[in-house]
Write a sequence for this structure.
C-alpha cells in the first residue's frame, strides 16, 4: 500500500523548481513511476508530496541540433526505441533502450527517471556515457551540466540536490568513423543486467583509434564504470584482436562487483566482462570500419 | 486530498474522485468493477494488470489513478463483447491459447497494440510485444499462434 | 485407432470465451458488502519460539476486527497437504503455533476494514522471539545435535509409517527388488554420481486467493483458488472444529495451480477470521508471499549407481534420495516415494535398490509440484542412461529403446511401492514409447545432428543434442476416487456436475467431450458445473494427473447409466425392445423399424407424460492402477563456452497419453510443462541468505521464461489405447515436465563434453564446470 500523500501536477519546469525549493526534502518527483511506486509499496520511501512531471510539455522531446541530441527527461524508453532518428543515428541508444524492461515498462519508464534512480544495473546509462552524455540539471540556482558518469555517485545515489531536477540529457553525435555496440547478459530476455557493456570506437582516417569509450554496467561497482584504462590502452593504436583482448582483461580489473548480488558472483561478472568487452569492442570496430554508424 | 478526475474508460467518459495514492488497478477492479484486469505481482513484472492508456499497454499496478485524468483507458472489457468479440479474443479461443485465462486479458491487450501498429508482425516481433506478459500454462506457443491468426484475419479485414 | 465423434477433436475450451472476454470468473472477482481484508504476519526468523505476542495496540486500532495468533485459536494438528483422508503426510502444522520454523512462517493474522488498515495493524503486533539455532542443509539435518524443528509432542502420521521428528527425520522408506549386489556383479561397467536438484516455485499467475462469507442459513462459504475443494472442506472443518455440513467450498475458475493449490494454505485462516468477525473476509497472497510462504518443489540430493553390460543390458539400479522437506512435511513422503514408485518402472531392470529419506530443515516447506518427485528422479536417471549408453558405445536412442518398459510388460516396482506405500500389481496395457522415440528422433533430426555436432564450429559457441525418456503414472491407485452426476433437461441437454477441479487445464471441456461422446450429442448440449461441495459429488481433486483418466471414467459411467434410462423410456415410447435401439445424434433409433424419437421428446415424456421421473445418474470411479503415460524428449542446445550461457534452440516431445481426448488441449499441457521444465532447468532459482531468508521473492529476481526466451517446441502425440481409461485416454498433465533437466544436461554434454549433475544450469554454473574441466 502507498502512504498518504499530496499530489501535484505542475505544467512548467519553473513551477517544479519553486515547489522543490520549498519542499524538496519531502518530495519525490514521479515520471513513469515504475521504480518509485515499487519502492513506495515496499515502504522504502514515503514522500509527503508527489510531483508528477508527465504533464510538463517542455520535458518531453527528442531533438537533434548542433552536434548532438537533446532528450527531454520524461521521454519514455518506448519513444526512444521507436524514434527513427535515434535508430538511424544513435543505434547504441536504440539498442540499450530496447534492452530495458518490457514493452509496458518502456511505455512508462523515462530516461530521466531511469538515470535519477541510479540503479547500477541500468541499461541506458552505459550507452549514454559511451556517447559522452551530459545531464542538464535545473534548480533554484539556475542550470548546470554534468557529465553523466559524474552524475552517478553511488548505488541509487546521484549528484542531484534536493531542489534540482534533470531537464534534459545531451548526447554528442558520434564523430565520423565511429562504431558502437551494446551487449548485455541477463538470465532471460527481460532481466536486469547481470552485466552490460556499451562501447564506442572512433577511428582516424588512417584506421588508428582516435577515441574509445568502454563503459561497463550491471552491478560491477556502486556505479557504472567508464574504463580509463581502455582509453589509455587503445587510443592512438591500430585495434587488433590481441590488443583488444588484453584491454578487456585490463578493464575487468577495474570492476568491483558486490558479492551480494543474486544474479552472479563477482568472479563470474569479472570473467564474463572480459568476454563481453572484447566482443563489444570487436563489434564496434567492425561497425566503425564498415561505416555503419555515422 | 481527494481529487476528481475525468477520463475515458472503454469509450465512455467517466468522472471519479480518487485519492492521490490510489492505484489504477484497484480503481478499475473495485470502483469500476472491471475485474478482467488482474493482480499478479504488484511490481510490474507479470503483466496481468496490463491496460491500454491512450492505446499503449501499461501496468495498472504501477500507475496512480490520479494520473489518468483526461486520458483514454481501455481494459479487456472494452475491446469485445459476447456478440462481437475482438478478432484476438476469437483467435485465442480457437487456437487453445487460453488455459487458465488469468494472463489472457493482459496478453490480448499487449497483442492488440502490436497489431494496431504493425498488422503483419514477424514471430520475433510478436514475442517481443508480449515479453511483459508472463504465462505459466501455455509455454506461449499457442498464444503466438493466436496472434498470428488474428493478424491474418485483421489484415484480411482491412484489405 | 478407434474413431470417435467428439473425443479426439479439438473443440474449443468451454470456458475460453468468457475468459478471453475478461468476465469475472476468478475467486477475487467478486465484491461482497462489508467485506474485510485479511493480512498475515510472517516470521522474520528461521527458527524461534514465540515467548509472547502483544496484540493490544493492534486490536485497539480502529477498523481492525479480529486478530488471530496461537493464543486464541484452537491447536489442531493437521497437514496442509490437500490429500485424501487419512493423509499420507505428517500432522505437523497448526493454524498458529508458539514456534516458527522458517522465515515466512505464520505468526498472526488480522482482518480489517481495508488492506491499508490491516497492513498498519500488522506493524503494531509486538512479538517476543527466543531465537533457536536453525538448520538449512538437508545433509546436516539428521546430524546428532542438529536443532530439532518439530519438538512438539503432538506431531504424528495418521498412517503407520516411519517418523522420527526428534532427528528431523520426516520420512524413510527403502526397498530392493531382485538383488542389487548381484546385478552389480553382472555389470561390465558401474557408474556412480551424486546429483542435486533445486527449489522451484509454481508461479501460478493468480496468487492464492480465498474469500469466505456466510450464506443466508449461516453456513460458511469458502470461495477459493484450489485444486482440491473437497479436501479444503474437510481440512478447514477439522481446523475450525466444526462439522463439514457447516461449510461449502466453491472452486471458481483457477488461475493456474501446478500443485501449488493442492494445499490448504490460506483457507483455514480466512475461514477462522470470517467465523470470528461474522463478516465476509478476503485473503489474497502477494507475489512476495507466494515466494516466501507458499510451497515449493522439494529439492533433493540423489546418489545414483547403475550397472550395465557391454551388450546394453541394464543390470542394476540404485537410487538414494535425500529430500529437503523444509519446515513442514506436506507431501514429503509421497513426493519422495514417487522418485521410485512413479519414476523407476520406466526401466527394464530386475535389480533395483532404492533408499529414501525426507528431512525437516528451516526453509520454506516443500509441497506438491507438477511431476511430484518424478521430475527429481528423472534427472539422475536420464543422465545416467546417457552416460551408460556412451560408456558402451551405443546410441542413446537405441539404449533407451532397449531398456524401457513395453506394452504387455510389468515392473516389480508397481507392486512394491505406490506414492502412499504399498503398490498394486499391473501390466502396462498401453505404451507407444518405442514409436515416440523413433518418431521424435526422426522429426528432431537426431542422427544428422549427432553426426554434425561431432565436428564443432570454430569459436566459443558449441552445439549439442540430448534426449531423455520419461514416464508418469496417473492417480494414486486404490485411494483416488472421482464421481460425476448428470441430469437431463427439457430440450435434451444435460447438466454435468463434476467434483473435478479444472485449474485452467481444460478438464471441464475434456469431461464434457467424454460425456457427449457417450451419448452422441454435441458438446454444446453439456452444461458443465464444476466443483462446489454443496452441489457436485466428490472428487479427490486435480492432482496426480488423474482428471482425464479417473474423473473421465466417472463421467463415462454416468453417461452410460443415463443412456440406459433414455433407452428404457424410448423403448416404451416406440413399443420396441431396448436391444433393437441405439443412440444417434441426440435421438434414439430403432435398428429394426427405423423409427426415431428425439432426446427432447424422450425427456419430455419422462418429465411430464408417463411414469414421470428425472433422467439422471451418478457414478463413481476408483482408481485400480496408475496408467502410465510416456514421452521421449529431444533437446538441441547452444553453449557459449566463454559466458556459460545455454540456449535451447529446439525441443521435440513425442508423447504417449493414450487417446488425446482433445489434442489441442493435450498439446497445451505438453508445451506448458516443457517450457516450465526448461525455465526450471536454466534460470529459476531460489536464493537464501545465511539466516534462511529468501533473497529473490519476485518475478524480477526469480526469472521464469517469457515469450522471447522460448525455443522452437514441437509436440507429437503418438496415440496408444489404454483399455482402463475413457476412450483409451491416459494422462498428460505432468509427464512432460520430467524431460528438460536430463535432456538439456545431456545436450550440454554433447556440446562441450562436460556433464552437469547439479541444477539449474545457469550461465555461472556452466562456466564454472567448464573452467574446472579446463583446469584438469
Amino acid at each position: 500500500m502507498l502512504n498518504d500523500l499530496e499530489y501535484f501536477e505542475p505544467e512548467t519546469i519553473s513551477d517544479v523548481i519553486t515547489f522543490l525549493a520549498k519542499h524538496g526534502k519531502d518530495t519525490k518527483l514521479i515520471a513513469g513511476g515504475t521504480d518509485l511506486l515499487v519502492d513506495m509499496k515496499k515502504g522504502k520511501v514515503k514522500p509527503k508530496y508527489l510531483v508528477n512531471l508527465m504533464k510538463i510539455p517542455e520535458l518531453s522531446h527528442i531533438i537533434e541540433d548542433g552536434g548532438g541530441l537533446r532528450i527531454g527527461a520524461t521521454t519514455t524508453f518506448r519513444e526512444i526505441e521507436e524514434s527513427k532518428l535515434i535508430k538511424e543515428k544513435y543505434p547504441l541508444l536504440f539498442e540499450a533502450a530496447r534492452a530495458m524492461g518490457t514493452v509496458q515498462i518502456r511505455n512508462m519508464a523515462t530516461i530521466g527517471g531511469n538515470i535519477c534512480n541510479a540503479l547500477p544495473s541500468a541499461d541506458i546509462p552505459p550507452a549514454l556515457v559511451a556517447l559522452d552524455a551530459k545531464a542538464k540539471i535545473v534548480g533554484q540556482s539556475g542550470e548546470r551540466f554534468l557529465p553523466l558518469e559524474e552524475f552517478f555517485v553511488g548505488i541509487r545515489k546521484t549528484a542531484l540536490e534536493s531542489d534540482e531536477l534533470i531537464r534534459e540529457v545531451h548526447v554528442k553525435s558520434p564523430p565520423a568513423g565511429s562504431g558502437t555496440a551494446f551487449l548485455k547478459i541477463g538470465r532471460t530476455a527481460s532481466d536486469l543486467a547481470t552485466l552490460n557493456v556499451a562501447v564506442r570506437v572512433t577511428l582516424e582516417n588512417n584506421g588508428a583509434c582516435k577515441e574509445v569509450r568502454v563503459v561497463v554496467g550491471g552491478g560491477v561497482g556502486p556505479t557504472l564504470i567508464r574504463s580509463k584504462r581502455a582509453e589509455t590502452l587503445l587510443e592512438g593504436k591500430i585495434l587488433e584482436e590481441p590488443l583488444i583482448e588484453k584491454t578487456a582483461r585490463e578493464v575487468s580489473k577495474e570492476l568491483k562487483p558486490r558479492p551480494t548480488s543474486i544474479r552472479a558472483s563477482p568472479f563470474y561478472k569479472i570473467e564474463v566482462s572480459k568476454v563481453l568487452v572484447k566482443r563489444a569492442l570487436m563489434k564496434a570496430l567492425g561497425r566503425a570500419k564498415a561505416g555503419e554508424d555515422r | 486530498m481527494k481529487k476528481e478526475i475525468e477520463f475515458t474508460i472503454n469509450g465512455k467518459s467517466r468522472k471519479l474522485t480518487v485519492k492521490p495514492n490510489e492505484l489504477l488497478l484497484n480503481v478499475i477492479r473495485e470502483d469500476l468493477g472491471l475485474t478482467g484486469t488482474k493482480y499478479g505481482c504488484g511490481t510490474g513484472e507479470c503483466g496481468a494488470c496490463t491496460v491500454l492508456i491512450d492505446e499503449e499497454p501499461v501496468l495498472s499496478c504501477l500507475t496512480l489513478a490520479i494520473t489518468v485524468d483526461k486520458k483514454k483507458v481501455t481494459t479487456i472489457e472494452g475491446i469485445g463483447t459476447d456478440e462481437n468479440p475482438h478478432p484476438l479474443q476469437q483467435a485465442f479461443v480457437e487456437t487453445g491459447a487460453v488455459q487458465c485465462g488469468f494472463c489472457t486479458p493482459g496478453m490480448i491487450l499487449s497483442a492488440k497494440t502490436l497489431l494496431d501498429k504493425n498488422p503483419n508482425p514477424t514471430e520475433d516481433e510478436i514475442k517481443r510485444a508480449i515479453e511483459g506478459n508472463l504465462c505459466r500454462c501455455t509455454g506461449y506457443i499457442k498464444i503466438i499462434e493466436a496472434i498470428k491468426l488474428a493478424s491474418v484475419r485483421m489484415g484480411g479485414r482491412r484489405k | 485407432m478407434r474413431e470417435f465423434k467428439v473425443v479426439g477433436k479439438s473443440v474449443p475450451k468451454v470456458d475460453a470465451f468468457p475468459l478471453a472476454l475478461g468476465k469475472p470468473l476468478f475467486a477475487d472477482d467478486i465484491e461482497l458488502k462489508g467485506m474485510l481484508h485479511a493480512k498475515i504476519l510472517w516470521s522474520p526468523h528461521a527458527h524461534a519460539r514465540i515467548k509472547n505476542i502483544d496484540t493490544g495496540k493492534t486490536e485497539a486500532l480502529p477498523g481492525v476486527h479480529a486478530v488471530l495468533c496461537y493464543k486464541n485459536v484452537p491447536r489442531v494438528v493437521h497437514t496442509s497437504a490437500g490429500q485424501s483422508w487419512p493423509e499420507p503426510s505428517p500432522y505437523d502444522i497448526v493454524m498458529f503455533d508458539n514456534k516458527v520454523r522458517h522465515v515466512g512462517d505464520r505468526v498472526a493474522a488480522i482482518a480489517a476494514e481495508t488492506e491499508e488498515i490491516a497492513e498498519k495493524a500488522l506493524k503494531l503486533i509486538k512479538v517476543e522471539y527466543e531465537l533457536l539455532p536453525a538448520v538449512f542443509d538437508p545433509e546436516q539435518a539428521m546430524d546428532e545435535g542438529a536443532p530439532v524443528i518439530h519438538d512438539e509432542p503432538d506431531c504424528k502420521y495418521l498412517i503407520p509409517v516411519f517418523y522420527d521428528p526428534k532427528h528431523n527425520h520426516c520420512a524413510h522408506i527403502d526397498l530392493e527388488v531382485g538383488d542389487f549386489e548381484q546385478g552389480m556383479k553382472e555389470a561390465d561397467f558401474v557408474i556412480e554420481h551424486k546429483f542435486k536438484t533445486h527449489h522451484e516455485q509454481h508461479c501460478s499467475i493468480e496468487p492464492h486467493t480465498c474469500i469466505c462469507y456466510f450464506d443466508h442459513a449461516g453456513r460458511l462459504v469458502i470461495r477459493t483458488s484450489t485444486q482440491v475443494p473437497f479436501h479444503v472442506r474437510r481440512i478447514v472443518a477439522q481446523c475450525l472444529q466444526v462439522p463439514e455440513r457447516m461449510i461449502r467450498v466453491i472452486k471458481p475458475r483457477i488461475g493456474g495451480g501446478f500443485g501449488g493449490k493442492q494445499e490448504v494454505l490460506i483457507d483455514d485462516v480466512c475461514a477462522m477470521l470470517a467465523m470470528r468477525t461474522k463478516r465476509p473476509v478476503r485473503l489474497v497472497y502477494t507475489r512476495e508471499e507466494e515466494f516466501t510462504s507458499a510451497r515449493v518443489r522439494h529439492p533433493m540430493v540423489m546418489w545414483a549407481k547403475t550397472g550395465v553390460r557391454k551388450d546394453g543390458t541394464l543390470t542394476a539400479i540404485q537410487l538414494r534420495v535425500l529430500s529437503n522437506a523444509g519446515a513442514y512435511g506436506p507431501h514429503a513422503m509421497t513426493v519422495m516415494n514417487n522418485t521410485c514408485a512413479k519414476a523407476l518402472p520406466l526401466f527394464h531392470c530386475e535389480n533395483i535398490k532404492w533408499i529414501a529419506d525426507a528431512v525437516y530443515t528451516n526453509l520454506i516447506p516443500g509441497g506438491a509440484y507438477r511431476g511430484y518427485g518424478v521430475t527429481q528422479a528423472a534427472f539422475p536417471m536420464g543422465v545416467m542412461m546417457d552416460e551408460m549408453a556412451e560408456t558402451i558405445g551405443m546410441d542413446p536412442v537405441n539404449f533407451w529403446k532397449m531398456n524401457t518398459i513395453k506394452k504387455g510388460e510389468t515392473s516389480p516396482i508397481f507392486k512394491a511401492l505406490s506414492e502412499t506405500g504399498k503398490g498394486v500389481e499391473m501390466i502396462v496395457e498401453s505404451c507407444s514409447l518405442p514409436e515416440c522415440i523413433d518418431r521424435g528422433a526422426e522429426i528432431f533430426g537426431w542422427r544428422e545432428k549427432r553426426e554434425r555436432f561431432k565436428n564443432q564450429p570454430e569459436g566459443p559457441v558449441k552445439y549439442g543434442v540430448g534426449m531423455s525418456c520419461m514416464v508418469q503414472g496417473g492417480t494414486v491407485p486404490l485411494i483416488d476416487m472421482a464421481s460425476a452426476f448428470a441430469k437431463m433437461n427439457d430440450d435434451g441437454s444435460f447438466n454435468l456436475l463434476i467434483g473435478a477441479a479444472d485449474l485452467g487445464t481444460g478438464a471441464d471441456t475434456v469431461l464434457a467431450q467424454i460425456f457427449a461422446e457417450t451419448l452422441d450429442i454435441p458438446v454444446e448440449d453439456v452444461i458443465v458445473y464444476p466443483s462446489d461441495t454443496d452441489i457436485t459429488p466428490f472428487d479427490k481433486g486435480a492432482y496426480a494427473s488423474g482428471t482425464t483418466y479417473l474423473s473421465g471414467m466417472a463421467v463415462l459411467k454416468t453417461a452410460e447409466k443415463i443412456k440406459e434410462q433414455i433407452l428404457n423410456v424410448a423403448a416404451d415410447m416406440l413399443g420396441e425392445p431396448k436391444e433393437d435401439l441405439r443412440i444417434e445424434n441426440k435421438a434414439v433409433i430403432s435398428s429394426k423399424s427405423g423409427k426415431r424419437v428425439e432426446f427432447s421428446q424422450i425427456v419430455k415424456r419422462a418429465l411430464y407424460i408417463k411414469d414421470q421421473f428425472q433422467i439422471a445418474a451418478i457414478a463413481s470411479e476408483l482408481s485400480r492402477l496408475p496408467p502410465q503415460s510416456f514421452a521421449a524428449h529431444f533437446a538441441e542446445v547452444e553453449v557459449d563456452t566463454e559466458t556459460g550461457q545455454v540456449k535451447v534452440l529446439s525441443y521435440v516431445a513425442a508423447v504417449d497419453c493414450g487417446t488425446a481426448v482433445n489434442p489441442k488441449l493435450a498439446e497445451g499441457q505438453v508445451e506448458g510443462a516443457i517450457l516450465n521444465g526448461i525455465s526450471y532447468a536454466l534460470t529459476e532459482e531460489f536464493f537464501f541468505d545465511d539466516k534462511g531468508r529468501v533473497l529473490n521473492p519476485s518475478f524480477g529476481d526469480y526469472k521464469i521464461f517469457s515469450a522471447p526466451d522460448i525455443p522452437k517446441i514441437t509436440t507429437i502425440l503418438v496415440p496408444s489405447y489404454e483399455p482402463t481409461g475413457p476412450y483409451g485416454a491416459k494422462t498428460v498433465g505432468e509427464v512432460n515436465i520430467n524431460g528438460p533437466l536430463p535432456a538439456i544436461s545431456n545436450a550440454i554434454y554433447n556440446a562441450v563434453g562436460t556433464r552437469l549433475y547439479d541444477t539449474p544450469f545457469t550461465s555461472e554454473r556452466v562456466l564454472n564446470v567448464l573452467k574446472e574441466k579446463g583446469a584438469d
Q: What stands out?
A: Residues 547-574 of chain C form the longest helix (28 residues). Chain C has three domains: 16-23+480-622, 32-132+205-256+261-293, 300-476+625-775.
